[in-house]
Amino acid sequence: MCNDGIKLHNVHNLYNPYIVKRFKSKKKTKNKEAKDEKYDEENEEKNEEEIPLGSKLLKIKVTSIRLDSLSKAAFGMSRSKIEEAFYASKFRINGNKVLKNPKK
Fold this sequence. Notes:
Number of helices: 3
Domain Mitochondrial transcription rescue factor 1 C-terminal: 60-103
Largest sheet: 2 strands, antiparallel
Region (Disordered): 26-50
Mean pLDDT: 71
Number of strands: 4
GO molecular function: RNA binding
Radius of gyration: 26 Å
Distance between the termini: 53 Å
InterPro entries: MTRES1_C
Order of helices and strands: EEHHHEE
Strand content: 15-25%
Pfam families: MTRES1_C (PF25818)
Structural class: alpha+beta
Strand order of the largest sheet: 1-2
Shape: elongated
Helix content: 40-55%
């Protein structure tokens, strides 16, 4: 081990002899993670203030951001019922009817 926590490894190949340096320090990543957590907490507080009364904030994980998969997860309904409502033109985004199902 050399100074400053740097390990030197000699790797010899028949064709390419070279030296590999490995920097072993986790201080930077810990500080960065702490800053990210502070930033996330501040954003959550701001988002909570913007939610109107009588509404509910859901955090869901979906594999695709298609309208039918988001609606299924948000409303807790089956995909077939979501498709029936879609084809009956009951879905609107910003006041406009949705024309295609794979709308992202």
